[in-house]
Amino acid sequence: MAGAAANTGVPRWVAVGLLPVINLLAAFLVSGLVILAIGENPLRALAILLNGAFGYQEGIGFTLYFTTNFIFTGLAVAVAFHCGLFNIGGEGQATLGGLGVGLVLLYLDFLPFVLILPVAIAAAVVFGAAWSYLPGLLQAKRGSHVVITTIMFNFIASALMVYLLSQILIKPGQMSPESREVAQHTWMPFMHDIFPIARSPWNGSFIVALLACAFLWVFVWHTRWGYEIRTVGANASAAVYAGISPSRNIILAMVISGGLAGMLGVNEIMGVNHRLILNFSAGYGFVGIAVSLMGRNHPVGIVLASLLFGALFQGGADLAFEIPKITREMVVFIQGLVILFAGALEYLFWPFLVAVFGREADTALAAAE
Amino acid sequence: MMRTLLGAAAAATMFVASASWAQDVKPAVVFDMGGKFDKSFNEGIFNGAERFQKETGIEYRDAEVTAEAQREQFLRKFAQQGFDPVIAVGFAQGPALEKVATEFPDTRFSIIDMVVDLPNVQSIVFKEHEGSFLVGVLAAMASETGKVGFVGGMDIGLIRRFACGYEQGVKHVNADAEVYQNMTGTTPAAWNDPVKGGELAKSQFDRGADVVYAAAGGTGLGVLQAANDAGKLSIGVDSNQNYLHPGSVLTSMLKRVDVAAYNVYKTAADDTWAAGIQVLGLAEDGVGWALDDNNSALISDEMKATVTQVRQDIIDGKIAVHNYTDNNECSF
Question: From the CA of A80, how many Å to the nearest CA of chain B?
Fold first, then answer.
């Protein structure tokens, strides 16, 4: 993008700021037409969506709770991308991460919270990383494509959780395949427990997510490992020539990716559900792909894209709730349009922007000369 | 028969409806992950709510959850906005309802398929094992090979309860009968995999089964189709599925969630809604078996007499049907 801007003389703020906004507006415009077609007022729908996401404290809390999940899975996809890998196993890695957190909270609850917190986060990372280690190893040593193996591992993770929760960890005497509730002192504090705000699932994991962003930024751009991973991602043959082992870095990138995805378990199990349940990953792993793409695989972009999707999830839920005619499938449709315009059709309006801003830049350049 | 019964019930309620409603109700329902159009459990609730709306003109509002945390969010929102009564669909909503019902003690909540013990919550559960016992009896009597099949959806205790009741019913008629059991899968995808359901049914036919019972949501449609193609008999579940393949669907095990949902709203409007646990079994007509024009040729008089007798014996307690989830094993 920055490169494109440089070549056409379009100012950077247009490329980084204006273009995504135009794409978003285009997506909303098309959504609006569809909402109009089913006989509802699109402006009212937009108002409900925005109000649902940012208009009141509980709504903001839910938005940031979803945002937390998307940051973790978005970062996970991004770090693999930097190595040229497409990790679509975020779901499975998050499931295992949650299992790790759950086991710590269930069986190590004699520890005080200050010890539980780091142990639980470590368990999330280790379990998630272990789940992506095998696909990484198979890719590095045998050339089995991670797209295939990671998605297969999603199913294995799901089956494993069903087995554990329906046979072993289930609280006896209940129908639902769920573990018992974990001891209250092991819960991640809710933000509404710390600050005087309305109840919502927004919890301390949000801060963990922001720390993970900082970690990714330092790791990818300011360490030797990050440099090697990016080199392998850019050109594996050149990396070999430079004395960098692609297989080692593929495994490293996958392990870190899985660890980040696994941390979703901290938000879901330790932060919100307080017990092990099935399917808490609920598609966040897949949305992480869109988040990472829209965020340009950069932590700042990922936080912004996560906020956008968090707002769409929460605002969309309010929309479906307030207007009975708009179903939750309709909300998924709107989210899909955002992905379509901001991701797949990203440069649809680019020639137009070049025509408007590129010329100005040229004249500015000419004037400078 | 079903149709006339329903018609009579509808006519009766129309009569009640013409009298003025004792109380203003603002009914709402929170569907579970499957969504209101799952062709099965949630849709049953939806049908019941729709019937109430059509008959009374009182509109209801609904919400469908897509994330765990939203169950609590939607229940709380309905309560905050003054909706009453509110139905929570499915056992997974139990913990969320427990929290919200405590916060809003003046709102009436009903939960289906789960027990939540609070003074403002009505818990509605079904004895699926009893209904399954009856269709097991019919399966064993209709079978010529002495081998029958069962195709379950997701492998959870609830579905094993269906399987175990069915097996008991089969063995009640023919102690030497063989019951082949297959679960479609271990993830929620198992509720909607008709292709795999059909394959499982075919493999059971290959082993000699000639009647197969599907307790698998949308997956069951594939089971019924496979039985029809192979010229075998099948048994539907939850709603009356006899019409899907007339002459091939032996009967359907009815689980009247639609009636349950309808009754929640109706009793709330009549002011006869009561908190507590409602266990709907054969005696309460919460479960049962379906007989209509589509399958009357398949059900002989002897079968009808036997199953009617067994039904009465279960209601009277002469036959005890073991519930799988009492001890998580199928011992009887």
Answer: 26
- What percent of chain A is modeled with pLDDT above 90? 72
> By CA distance, what is A326's nearest residue in B?
B63
Decide which of A317 and B187 is more confident.
A317
Do B108 and B169 sit in the same domain of this protein? no
By C-alpha distance, which of A25, A29, A102, A17 is closest to A304?
Answer: A17
Asked if the Cβ–Cβ distance from A175 to B67 is below 8 Å, we say no
Give domain status of residue A312, yes or no.
no
CATH of the domain at B16: 3.40.50.2300
Q: Could you tell me if A93 and A152 are in contact, meaning their C-beta atoms sit under 8 angstroms apart?
A: no
Q: Which of A266, A285, A301 is the last residue of a domain?
A: A301
DSSP assignment of A304-336 equals HHHHHHHHHHHHHHHHHHH-TTS-HHHHHHHHH
pLDDT band for position B65 (50/70/90)? confident
What are the pLDDT digits (tens) for B148-205? 999 999 888 889 999 999 999 999 999 999 999 999 987 667 877 899 999 999 999 9
Q: Where are the alpha helices (DSSP H) in A9-112?
A: 12-13, 19-37, 42-50, 57-82, 90-107
Question: Are B33 and A279 in contact (CB < 8 Å)?
Answer: yes
**A109-133 confidence digits (pLDDT tens):** 999 999 999 999 999 999 999 999 9
Q: Where residue A2 falls among pLDDT bands split at 50, 70, 90?
A: very low
Query: Are A320 and A35 spatial neighbours (Cβ–Cβ below 8 Å)?
Result: no
Phi–psi pair at B239, nearest 5 degrees? -105, 175
In angstroms, the CA B67 to CA A215 distance is 28
Q: Which residues pair with B151 in a beta bridge?
A: B182, B214
Please give the residue of chain B at the shortest CA–CA distance from A65.
B69
B178/B225 same-domain check: yes
Residue B167 backbone phi and psi in degrees, to 5? -60, -40
Do B48 and B261 contact (CB within 8 A), yes or no? yes
pTM (predicted TM-score): 0.80
At B23 the pLDDT is 56
